[in-house]
Amino acid sequence: MNWIAFAERLLQGGIASLGSYLAAHVLLCLVPAFFIAGGLAALVPKESVTRYLGWDAPRYVAYPAAVMAGSTLAVCSCTIVPLFAGIYRKGAGLGPAMTFLFFAPAGNILALAYTGAAIGSDFAIARVILSLVFGIGIGMIMATLFHGDDLARAAQRDDGFVGDGRIARRTWWLLGAMLALLVFGTLKVSMLLESHASVSLPIAGTDRLERALFDLAPYDPAKGEEGVTLHGAFLIVLLLAIAPAAWKGLTEVDVGYNRWTWVALGLVAATLLVAALRIVPGADQLIVEFPGKFFGVVAALGVIAYLARTRFEAYEVQQWLWESWRFVKQIFPILVVGVFAVGMVRPLIRPEWIEAVAGTNSLLANLAGVAFGIVMYFPTLVEVPVAKMFQSLGMHPGPLIAYLMADPELSLQSILMTIAIIGRSKTFAYVALVAVFSTLAGLTFGAWVDGTGVWLLGGYLLAFIAILSVALYAMNHRALQKA
Amino acid sequence: MDVKILGTGCARCRRLEELTREVATEVGATIEVDHVTDMKRILEYPISGTPALVVKGEVKCSGRMPRKEEIAGWLTSSA
Questions:
Q1: Of A79, A75, A54, A76, nearest in space to A65 by CA
Q2: Is any Cβ of chain B less than 8 angstroms from the Cβ of A91?
């Protein structure tokens, strides 16, 4: 084999993968998602959720609150670890803490937005519903299994964990407007996709430019790949321009704005607007169309700018921007490297292998998905491009969800961290439960995709919830009798 | 003055330490900063989250970033 040609093929795979991720609006959906995550971190006081997670919180309040905490407060492990330890040691106890630990990596805004844009909104919805049901389930089973330990800790009662914070109404509005921005940018409904106006610019030769781009990063539509269009290339240039401007303007924005802050924010707005356009290159003219979503993005950006200027103090806006940029700095480089690496590995895996192991929704296939998720460790969100690769290689949606559930929950690193906080026996029980429940989740979703009735599966899910409710009632009853 | 920053070494916690040192020079307070990263020791304090700022053994804020003026107030009133 010619090694240079081989290396070139790998490199080209990486470039093509990165290019299509950057251009095909997949990473773009992360731009509003990063701002939402930053807003949640900076503007939502932790106490607004943790006050429901105090020592005295009844179970039916504590579990939903743990889920809320998972979806709103936690994006990276540096928030997850202290909150997990806090809920366990000082707050509502083992059960809600486990629910939180299970739900946070899968149910936060970045993970959901990214899954939705890269693999499909049905996967995002399945991911959130299944982790919700099974997260609460695992928490309750853990609480029942280790009930004695929980009671023993009652002696070390500590009310310091509970606070009294509220989420201001303006914060709800701001987060709502950003969520609208995210939805307008990614939702594929005809009202948002139809063109309502178009302009043609007299620029010649744009079609040749686009063909040159396709040659630079070849792609195969049969494999579900997308090429870098002219539009995409323009967006990549904009994203590259944001990086230095944001570095200068946002790194110390928490103590004040500077000129670069406005340049960076202007470029972000421009990127979102350009992404919402449709650009058709031609031989002697360039046609720019304005679909419905363009006007949605304009409206959402207007509302966000208005709210930020009039309803928030400069200090709050600065904190928000600082947090958003911190998330970008922390997560985006990992994602870029991850997507590139996945693109390089992709040509080495033969679709026949994947189809043989996980081409159908069998128990074995789901177990294989879970096993791969446990053995492999991918940093934050990189599980998504990996799953996308498996999907294009012919993996059945069932095992794919099983993998997506297990991978972010279980890795050597997270297992060690959990052992340090709750001890060996509880951690191994948790790992076993996650493996079982992820397999179940895969089988459920796979059955749904294969055509099993929604009502039948919904019935199973309801039965599961009913059994849990009974367990919950019994647990509460027992706790009351002891008290 | 004994000042403790509680945090697992994340970006916010490092930024809080930076800001605290800056404010201390601005208001002319001499402080010894102890950045506590050990989860066990962090949990000994009654806090709702990290980062947290402890001045002379008293938790001043937790789970959020304080303003510079707030930090200045704590450092001067506890002096």
A1: A54
A2: no
